[in-house]
Amino acid sequence: xxxxxxxxxxxxxxxxPSGTLTGETIPPIAKDFETIKSLYKTMVLTRVFDAKAIxxxxxxxxxxxxxxxxxxxxxxxxxxxxxxxxVFAPAYREYGVQFVRGVKMSEVLLYWGxxxxxxxxxxxxHDFAWCVPIATQNTHAAGAALAFKLRKEARCTxxxxxxxxxxxxxxxxxxxxxxxxxxxxxxxxINNGWAISVPRAKQSSGETLAQKGIAGGLPxxxxxxxxxxxxxxxxxxxxxxARNGEGATVIEAITYRLGDHTTADDASRxxxxxxxxxxxRFEPILRLRQYLMDNNQWSVQQENKLMEDCAIKVEAxxxxxxxxxxxxxxxxxxxxxxxxPHDLAEQRAYALALEEENK
Amino acid sequence: xxxLAMVEAVSLALNYELEHDKDVVVLGEDVGINGGVFRAxxxxxxxxxxxxxxxxxxxxxxxxxxxxGMATQGMKPVAEAQFMGFIFPMFEQIxxxxxxxxNRTRGRLTCPxxxxxxxxxxxxxxxxxxxxxxSMFAHxxxxxxxxxxxxxxxxxxxxAAIRDPDPVLFLEPKRIYRLVKEEVVDDGEELPLDMxxxxxEGNDITLVTWGSMIKETLEAAEALEKQGISAEVIDxxxxxxxxxxxxxxxxxxxxxxxxxxxxxxxxxxxxxIAATLAENSLYSLMAPIKxxxxxxxxxPLFKLEKKYMPTVNRILKAVNEVMEVS
Lengths: 359, 326
Hints:
The complex is a heterodimer.
Chain A: E1 11-12, H1 33-58, H2 72-81, E2 87-89, H3 95-100, H4 105-112, H5 136-150, E3 157-162, H6 169-180, E4 185-191, E5 194-195, E6 198-199, H7 200-203, H8 211-215, E7 220-224, H9 228-243, E8 249-254, H10 273-280, H11 284-294, H12 300-322, H13 331-334, H14 342-357
Parallel strand pairs in A: 1-7, 2-3, 3-4, 4-8, 7-8
Antiparallel strand pairs in A: 5-6
Chain B: E1 3-5, H1 6-20, E2 24-28, H2 44-48, E3 53-55, H3 60-72, E4 76-80, H4 88-98, H5 101-104, E5 114-119, H6 134-138, E6 144-146, H7 151-163, E7 168-173, E8 181-183, E9 197-200, E10 205-209, H8 213-227, E11 231-235, E12 238-240, H9 244-254, E13 257-264, H10 269-280, E14 290-294, H11 302-308, H12 312-324
Parallel strand pairs in B: 2-3, 2-4, 4-5, 5-7, 6-7, 10-11, 10-13, 13-14
Antiparallel strand pairs in B: 1-8, 6-12, 9-11
Helix pairs in contact in B: 1-7, 3-4, 8-12, 9-10
């Protein structure tokens, strides 16, 4: 017998849960405190926004909402590593990525508030909208990456998937395509431990989810998804690789879903409270704040001011969301096709006439 | 001018558009050097290179998903589903994304893509290679479903499909891929989508069909002529959205209608046409509408395949029943 191939999966963490630098190497971002502070602010804003969105849903002012609580480092880390011209293919809770890329909080609220205009957002116009069917976004990102490769544009795509979604064929097919076509793209598996009520252990008996990338022939690593520095640095490295024509990378970011799956879910039915309590010790914002404070880059006063600012910004976003113009009934017809087919035009006219009658 | 079979006309249209629009790419399983299992992409890879005519890994969901991804970023991909029986992994991408992208993003992202699929029975193929499932897609808002029935219509409609700013499912009735040859002018002229074609003028009855059933329907019209019945034959061509106006105009003239489809009868495109005539054209009708369709059974393997397919005889029986009502 001969060994024809062998593999290993590295786990990368730069910032420990207590906020100290770990490991032998220190990534450049670790000393770029201005950038870290800016990203820290976005992480906190994302969390304040998240709490507000949940309370809006609880009071009947928003539809079902998917919380991002606990994912702030992996989301903002991805967003900060990407370039504007790159394409982001989200699932549906990666607001931190999108806020860094210019999507407005009010637009996220519009979407979950049942208004398609939210997906015509202020972020890069080439970015994909929220993708509810699990893992289908991975192949969209692969297609966009193939377009860039064929047109010889120095652009990449990045798509995310959850631990549950990593069990789906579309994800594996996209990995395989990325490998076969040597596509400029990055896959981030955001492993938050739970796919609604099904824990990570029930998705696969593989030691890591990253190794699914190895099976497809892609370099694949694990990072501490609650470590902003690790996510930012490793995603940036993977994007640079992709941009240089070296192909795709799979990054499994280990984080934890501190909230319910969505506001329609009640995790207490299936998840021990103690597990959540334990996970809070590893959450991303605490350790980054500690790191900034230990380096004399952040103070209690600044923290208080930040919380006030975030509250004001979120309130303004809610106001903008709630003052959005009424959706005309014609809107459900007008974006079906570039030009409305004859029968649909008739149905549109009928719907409009009904509106008139009911005025 | 060369006389071409329908599958060659498909190839000619792809050739034309690859040459004239740099955003067009062809992708799918075996579409490259092999030229496709039906040779619809024959010679394209050799002429345009493997960056334009792309052999993909064997993964249909991925092909459709990547086609969506490419289309949103300004390309005009023309993907091939090798057989329509293998289109089901693509179904989610077509229905959940290709059809919805424009609406979802209020026009920010669009899907100017084509998915071509050979379909239908009659060629003694293995299981899963013979079904007609156009109505599954015709029921989906946001996509067009186009079915050519002759070489020149395949050429003109495929060009229109590729140039259309919205997603088009282009279903090629493979039984008539090489049935007739006709002259096809390679002038890049497209034919209109969303419109029926009147293939034969008549005054006594309207026969409505599409795809491979054009053959049996035209033969039936010939036979009826000998009986002294003048049949108008309409090729629906775009089965979603349907040009109901042309059909209604014809029925207004003839007062009678038989609709012929190869697909199972239940919830088929013929049902939609019949229902629309019942809604809007009842007072033009002198007799009940009849549908001649496949049975509501699993498409049989080829020993019974011919028994499943609507035949000239079945069409004539239906017409005669309709004509008897005075």
